[in-house]
C-alpha cells in the first residue's frame, strides 16, 4: 500500500503564477500548504514573458515584491510592442514593461511562496483525484514513487489541460488553441527591446521576441495536422525577406503548449470555477485576457481570490466555493466585456489592414490599462 500524507490543509496543484500566488497567501495565513508541480523546477513555459498590464505589475509588486534581476531576462524591460503587416506602416504601442523567461520568473514566485511557509514539491504529478468524505484524496507520482494525499481544500492551478478541472467538471471541454515556439541563436534586423507582432492578410500571424543572444518565434497554427510547418515557413520567409533571417537556420530547440482560446470565450456558458472545497484558478479556469491572451495577471488575481476563499471557509467551517465564485464575478464581467463583438475584427480588416491595425492597437491598449 502506498503511504497517505494528510498533514496539509490545502494542496495547490501547479507551480505557475496562479499556484504560487494561492500557496503564498494560504501559507502566510497559517494554513499548512503544499504547492506541487509535475515538472522539475524551474520549468520552462511557452510564453512571451511580458508583464503587460498595470494589474500584473501591481499584483506582483504588492504580493511578491519587485522582481529581482535573476527573475528578469536581457533586456530586463521592453519598450513596447510593434505591430506589422506587409501593407501598412508599423504601428507601435510604447509601454515599458518587465520582461522575463518564465522559468526564472515562475521559480522566483515559487520560492517566495516557499519562503512564506508553503512546502514546495517538484516532480510530483497528480494522477487521480477523488472526493472522499468531505476531503479530497489525491494519487500522485512523486519522483517516480506512488504517494497518496488527503486534503480538505484543493486548488487546481494546473494549467490549460487541468486534471483538477477535468475531474470536477468533465463537461463542457475547454476550447483551446495550440502554440508553437522556436528558439534561434543570433539576431534579426529588429529592435531587441520591443516584442514584434506580424500579421498576414488572413489575420493569422506570429511574434518575435529577443532574450539575451537568442530570438524566439511564437506561432498559433490552426488545429490541422501539419499546419504549423506551413506557418513556420511563412514566418521564416517574411523574416528572411525583410529582417535578415538566414534561410535554413535550424532552431536550438522547439516546444509548444495548449492555451485557452483567445478570440472567443473558452466555455460555452459560465466558467467552471469551484465545487465545494475545490477551486480552479488561472489558465485551468480559462481566465486569460481575451484577444491578447495575457494570463499572468489573471492567474495571480484568481490564485489570491481562491486563497482568500479557502481562508474564509476554514475560519467559518463553510465551503470555499461560494466565497470564490462570488469574488470572481467582477473579474469575469471585465473579461467578458473585452471580447470584440463577433465578426468585428474581420469587419475591420475588410475595410483594409489599416483599420485592422487600429482595432488591434485598441485591444492591446485596453488590456494594458487593466487594473
Ligand atoms: C505563446 C504564449 C505567449 C504568452 N505570452 C504572455 C505574456 O507575454 N504575458 C502574460 O501575462 N501571459 C502570456 N501568456 C499566457 C500565460 O503564459 C498563462 O496565462 C499563464 O502561464 C497562466 O498561469 P497558470 O499559473 O494558470 O498556469 P501555468 O503557468 O500553465 O502553470 C500550470 C502548472 O501546472 C503544472 N501541472 C499541470 N498538470 C499537473 C499535474 N497533473 N500535477 C502537477 N502539476 C501539474 C504544470 O507543470 C505547470 O507548471 C502567453 C501564453 C502563450 C501560449
Explain what this protein looks like in three dimensions:
The protein is of the alpha/beta class and 371 residues long. It has a domain at 4-74 and 100-174 and 263-336: FAD/NAD(P)-binding domain (3-Layer(bba) Sandwich). The chain is built from 9 helices and 17 strands. The chain has helices spanning 17-28, 54-64, 102-115, 163-168, 227-243, 296-316, 320-336, 344-350, 353-368, and strands spanning 4-5, 10-13, 33-36, 77-85, 91-98, 119-121, 124-132, 135-142, 145-151, 153-156, 176-185, 194-199, 205-211, 214-219, 253-260, 274-275, 278-280. A hairpin with a 5-residue loop joins strand 12 (194-199) and strand 13. Helix 2 (54-64) crosses helix 6 (296-316), helix 6 runs antiparallel to helix 7 and helix 8 packs antiparallel against helix 9. The model has no long low-confidence stretch (mean pLDDT 95). Bound molecules: flavin-adenine dinucleotide. Flavin-adenine dinucleotide (FAD) binds next to helix 1, strand 7, strand 15 and helix 6. Flavin-adenine dinucleotide is lined by residues 13-19, 36-39, 43, 45-50, 52, 56, 125-126, 157-159, 163, 179, 218, 257, 259, 282-284, 288, 293-297, 299.
CATH homologous superfamily assignment of the domain at 4-74 and 100-174 and 263-336: FAD/NAD(P)-binding domain
Strand content: 25-35%
Distance between the termini: 50 Å
Q: Can you tell me the overall shape? A: globular
Radius of gyration: 21 Å
Major pleated sheet: 7 strands, mixed
**Overall residue-averaged pLDDT value:** 95
Query: Strands across the major sheet, in which order?
Result: 5-4-12-13-14-11-15
- Strand runs, count: 17
Bound molecules: flavin-adenine dinucleotide
